Amino acid sequence: MSDEEHHFESSDAGASKTYPQQAGNIRKGGHIVIKGRPCKVVEVSTSKTGKHGHAKCHFVAIDIFTAKKLEDIVPSSHNCDVPHVNRVDYQLIDISEDGFVSLLTDSGGTKDDLKLPTDDALSAQMKSGFEEGKDVVVSVMASMGEEQICAVKEVGGGK
After folding, report:
1. What pLDDT does 118 receive?
2. Strand-pair partners of 38
3. In whole angstroms, what is the distance from residue 39 CA to residue 63 CA?
4. DSSP conformation letters of the chain
5. 137 contacts 92 by C-beta, under 8 angstroms
6. Which residues pair with 43 in a beta bridge?
7. Which residues in the chain show pLDDT less than 70?
8. What is the pLDDT of residue 4?
9. Cβ-count burial of 145 within 10 angstroms (0-12 exposed, 13-18 middle, 19+ buried)?
10. How many CB atoms neighbour CB 89 within 10 A?
11. Which residues, at least 6 apart from 145, have a Cβ–Cβ distance to it below 8 Å?
12. What is the predicted pLDDT for the residue at 11?
């Protein structure tokens, strides 16, 4: 036995950011990783098997964070990476001058590492609801180590 002390910098539980799923089983509305980006599938078409090959699935998907359209063609019998996508609601506490938001977690702590959404309509809705003193609830989508505010709801009356 050695007297050396092991020190690990990583703080995650070692859970994978994706899981494999057969391409032929991925449907419209599901998620897929294309070019290393988590995407929501908007269209799937399957070609017939050729003389020498597999049936192929053609995916058209939209990046869930940047809204860019991506496409991929994969043999239907092969596995594709599917991202774990989590969506959590938080209550808005504060919006700082530098564009970061302060959110209240379910456990009573604060989450201060998210910026205002790049979508101007969402940002405007958050700011107006916050300035009017309403309770603003934001939905945060998280996948593959990225997080972004994707929806805003105003709950209850203001001052």
Report:
1. 78
2. 33
3. 4
4. ---PPP-----S----SEEEEEGGG--TTSEEEETTEEEEEEEEEEPPP-SSS--EEEEEEEETTT--EEEEEEETTSEEEEE-EEEEEEEEEEE-TTSEEEEE-TTS-EEEEEEPPS-HHHHHHHHHHHHTT-EEEEEEEEETTEEEEEEEEEES---
5. yes
6. 60
7. 1-15, 156-159
8. 62
9. exposed
10. 12
11. 17
12. 47
What is d(CA 15, CA 72) in angstroms, rounded to the nearest whole number? 26
| Predicted local confidence at residue 38, as pLDDT | 93
- What does the pLDDT read at residue 53? 77
The encoded tokens of residue 40 equal 């929501």
The set of residues, in sequence order, having a beta carbon less than 8 Å from that of 8 and lying 6+ positions away, is none
Please, are residues 31 and 84 in contact by the beta-carbon 8 Å criterion?
Answer: no
Q: How far, in whole angstroms, is CA 91 from its chain's centroid?
A: 18
Quote the CA–CA distance of 121 and 85 in Å, as a whole number.
23
Q: For residue 153, which amino acid is it?
A: K
Cα distance between residue 47 and residue 27, in whole Å: 15
CB-side exposure of 157: number of CA atoms within 13 Å? 1
